[in-house]
Protein 1
Amino acid sequence: MDPFYDPSRSYDDNDADGPFGAFAAPPTAPADGDRSAPRHRFLGLPVREPFGIPAGPLVNARFCAAAFAHGFDLCVYKTVRTRAHPAHPLPNIVPVHVDGDLTLEAARHPVRAGGAFAHPLSISNSFGVPSRDPDRWQPDMAAAVRAAGPGQVLIGAFQATRGAGDLVADHVRAARLVAETGAPVLELNLSCPNEGASDLLCFDAELVRRIVFAITDAVDLPLLIKIAHFAEDAALRRLVAMTGRLVAGYAAINTIPATLVDDAGRPALPGRTTSGVCGAGIRWAGLDMTRRLTRLRDELSLDYAIVGVGGVASADDYRAYRDAGADAVMSATGAMWNPGLAAEVRAGAAGSAGSAG
Ligand SMILES: Cc1cc2nc3c(=O)[nH]c(=O)nc-3n(C[C@H](O)[C@H](O)[C@H](O)COP(=O)(O)O)c2cc1C
């Protein structure tokens, strides 16, 4: 199946001409013949099924509208910034050849990438979090908000730009700009490995607390924070203890960084030695974080939401995340190559509701 984001084209070309594949046309059958009231709630909002697409592949309102039409009920508009920021040059997406799980140990060694996309699919996404200027993305994000149907939610994702003045102030400005579009939920990306920063922001709990405090003080909307896989339990506990009463929830995970090489051992992404891996090989890590966040929520008597992300490519994967404690589940790689995934998840959920009843 052709992916709805075309890896062979530049980011700007996808933005101008996409979406592609099945997302280029309305669904042949409505993703949902069911017109009953949404059965679920996410952050207090009614949702039909708490499943969707995380930040990244939905690069503009057309992509978001297509995703909603195909039954993805939670759609995250691609992470934006307070200023225009260019994308890395092609290639941005390459297949990564992972045998089973991309464990933290396996990710310490070079991993082979390039060639053909094959299932079970792992890929690298290396974009550098491009953004248009707020004058361009704000009206477009507002259109994406309007594209959500009943029981569907558009989430506005953002991050700050390092080296662009006061980091906390840039975060607050970005959050305010997103809120102005009418997005009912915000998501702060603290976990991008493709920016050249040696340490991810999510690992600096004290700085995250200051940023989150400033945002939630300035903007009265539920705030999710997108975090990476934490190797250390103590570090995750510290982050949750410091932020768990401020944020509405945690979205985990982003990607696992690895050194990607081609068959000849050269960098698979010229000029970028490490890059984030997502897809089937990181499912274990998303599930692991979901379980640990669930446990911490109980232990610390908190009530944040958990958005499980990583390697979801089937209705069974969705169920595994929900069973692990996720309040919502999202798929980037899996959904890109299977635009019918939301319909499969809904059918699976309807089946299990039926058998439970
Ligand atoms: C094409 C693409 C672009 C992405 N861009 C972003 C981004 O801008 N911001 C972000 O927080 N995550 C980004 N991600 C990461 C995804 O949101 C997700 O966390 C990750 O891909 C793991 O999910 P998956 O295994 O279902 O792909 C991107 C992923 C892909 C595939």
Protein 2
Amino acid sequence: MSYTADLHTHSPYAHGTSRRLTFENLAKWARIKGIDLLASGDFTQPVWAAETRAKLRDTGDGLFERSGVRFILGAEVNCSAVHNGRRRRVHMLMFAPTIGAVERVTAALSSKGKLEWDGRPTIRMTPRQLLETLLGVDERCFVIPAHLWTPHFGLYGSKSGYDSLEECFEDMTDRVHAVETGLSSEPAMNWRVPSLDHVAIVSFSDAHSPEKLGRELTVVSGQPSYDGLLSALKTQAIEYTVEFFPEEGKYHNSGHRKCGVSMSPQETAARGERCPACGRKLTLGVLHRVEELARRRVETRMDADGLTHGPNGRPSFRMLVSLSQIIAEARGVGLGAKTVRQAYLAMTDALGSELDILTAAPIADIARAAGEKVADGVSRVRRGEVAIEPGFDGQYGSARVWPDELQGATEDGPWRRLM
Ligand SMILES: [Zn+2]
Ligand SMILES: [Zn+2]
């Protein structure tokens, strides 16, 4: 038994998120995407907390339910405090087993930040102080450092992060059981860092709109329950994670968005960490930071099912491109085109969830439902045959399933074939 979990989600009350993030739409899109367990999101925001109590049914196992989709009470906060001589800004996911625990956590944090102002509030606490506060409320509360490597708000970020979990959590390090990779890194990059050997490497969407749910997710072993999830994280009982191609994430390379400059770690090693256009320091990306903290190389291999394995027995992962992207490219139209949305909904109606279509549905069935070109796109993605232009300094990278059909594409253009 296993279930799919996306535990980094938001409400409409977090800055920059869609007003369509209602519980009705969260449940509807979880079913379309193939997600069994979602985070309720933003539980410190009072309006959304009231909505959560009204719209979700307590299932008595530490989880909640709406329209057949399970929910765990979860939120994200921005921990902002001076620690070890530096100003730290670190995003943390936090989880609680009961509405009562949520109310006590919210009360404990209310003097530390403006909770009604932003669903992802800034809290004047270190991540360690947050963890201590949560465990003081309920021993079953837990945290997951969010998008671990992003420059500005990742616990390992180049701008204000730490160099190890121990530096951040000190005597409480063994109470941290998992870290979130973020869109710009995949598990194999994290396996290179020894201080992450004892935590589960998990992936979630950080969706700001319902359609982005599950773009990264974690397939957890067992049946959904609060205690079962916590123990699966402690023992790394994870079947696999679903990942973006890490190059697609918006902080993969180092660079300057305004100057249009993007550099790999090899290029910054050769040319320095200053922008060749404006002379200021580049925003050092995830790949740069991984190279800094990595202490070993890791060989990986992809099996016939598209799962990537390491030599270390840790949970495997698969990299996917969204079904909408495949449809849009197959039809030669933009991702936002109405026909893409129509074809997407027709396919998920006929064949099952997006995750099923991308990973398991027979290619012949996909061809019958959506045509040969889309079916070819899905099998290319399953084999990892995708070309990516890497993201940098806040700009998303872009994936191409059929890079040769791009106008002006050349062998040594910006498009890099991964496999
Ligand atoms: Zn965040
Ligand atoms: Zn510049």
Protein 3
Amino acid sequence: MTRTSPDPAAPDKGREVRGMFASIAPRYDLLNRVLSMGLDQRWRREMLARLPELQPGERVFDFCTGTGDVALAMAPLLGEGHAVHASDFCEAMVARAPEKCRPERGAPPHFLVSDALAQPYPDRSFAAATVAFGLRNVQDPPAALREAARILRPKGRLLILEFSKPPRSWFSAFYRFYFFRILPLVGRMLSGSEIDAYRYLPESVWAFPTPEELARELESAGLSVLEQRPFLGGAVVLHVAERPDT
Ligand SMILES: C[S@@+](CC[C@H](N)C(=O)[O-])C[C@H]1O[C@@H](n2cnc3c(N)ncnc32)[C@H](O)[C@@H]1O
């Protein structure tokens, strides 16, 4: 049977994922708000509450930024003299970010097109890196973690917000039904795309490492895990990791 969504295990997953996000880019923000019932913005704020204290002039980097929601929420929190850089490998997604900037919310982030597997920055460039609902979509997540660790300064933080398969409970049974049955139908109606991004979403979450496995991948990338905080019965997890003091 021909697939109408990216295969999370395909060798050319990156190309398929980029095409999928390009096709849903015009409706991506609307879909996020409707399908998460507004909770996505609350989870992003929880993530930003874990940013480290910044030294004068330090910068923060949001990768897999999509339409820039994390970068735009972060900019006014940092204050004078700090810059936000934000990138995505799908030009159609990141192209929507600048039009969402508001002058009253401080200096706009620097948006660019780049791949999470090869960031265009020298080692130790940033005090923190963030990624919301992006790591699961990357072709090679351990390589993206190593790349994030490389560009962090000593004691810099990596904050990851990502879906997770919730532990078994009455909630997980209900959630599974919503995630595999309702969400793909509503997503298909609202996205206006031929590609079933909202069939790919639950499949990619079920294929993604558990929090324990991700903690091991973070350690392998040279980072220490400080916190793994579940939201919504474990359907979303905030991972906080830090580069050692070297
Ligand atoms: C679900 S969206 C998340 C966007 C945003 N962070 C948010 O919170 O709404 C995932 C994004 O990851 C991007 N992405 C996937 N693989 C990537 C890679 N290798 N390098 C850069 N961006 C990537 C996609 O293009 C997409 O915009």
Protein 4
Amino acid sequence: MNAKTTQTRLDERLDRLVTIDIGERGVEPLFAAARDLQGGALVGAAAEALMAVPEGGTVVVTTGSVSRAWISPAIGENDGPSGAAAIVRALVLARNATCIVLCEASLLPAIRAVMVAAGLSPVTHKQAAIARSDRSLATVVMMPFPTEDDAGRTAAPALLDRLGPDLLFSTERVGRNTHGVYHSMRGIDYGMGRARVDLLFDEGLKRAIPVVAVGDGGNEIGMGKVADHVRAHVPYGAQCQCGCGGGIGAVTSCDVLVTAACSNWGCTAIAAAMAARARDARLLHTPERETRLLDTMVANGLINSTHGIIDDAVDGFPRASHIAIAELCRTIVAHTL
Ligand SMILES: [Zn+2]
């Protein structure tokens, strides 16, 4: 069997593993639709795009959901940050990339702690340039993004001009619907205090900057690509509960959409597909690191958004399931490393 065929088979297995719809959110029809559009494995296409970032390039990464926005903008959830950290780490190791992580100022401390637990030193953009030039440190740059529509619209083009990113990556980051409202999976408006990062992604798509997005519900950045299917298959996909007249589906599309039963799993699988391509085990999101990140997220007050409590059951799935997914992804690609 040639190398290309082997890679395709591994990608297919990773795809299937992380799309088993354990939470019954309707992700399987979204997966089928995204695969049809992609014409192949989603995880593989995402890994190809990320590995195509030029050596020393710049990637804008976003994650973080203000999960109980109506109570406090400081309450974030634990699906998103660990997956984003796995991708940033893989990009730094594989491409010597400078990754700029955008989120709300209110969630920045918790997400920064997750990045640190993944081995990344938070630095300024200027400091990251030094680290990149001599490869002396694995870094991440954290930046807050505006939480108001008008400020977000102004900041988006200005920030893209300044950073000149080679790729935009989003995981588990809610985007507005056709009426400009940000909805939870229960179909309520929870846009208050939420960074308008989706506006930056729309601007990036207009500029033909490659966009890779991971989601598990239909309300995230990237799901605009399968909007009709979100409407048809996801609870509140056609009609929300907030009265805006739309469904929860995000309008913002992407070039490569990765669907997963839990967004963190999608990122774990992408990291494995990157590791297989680079033949570099350092790029894997290992069970050991997942364990550390789960503990770090609890220690920093990120909630399990299904049960509304701080624990390590991301999206309501028990701790062991997340560690098992990391183990299975590693096992699937192990013989290539
Ligand atoms: Zn609504």
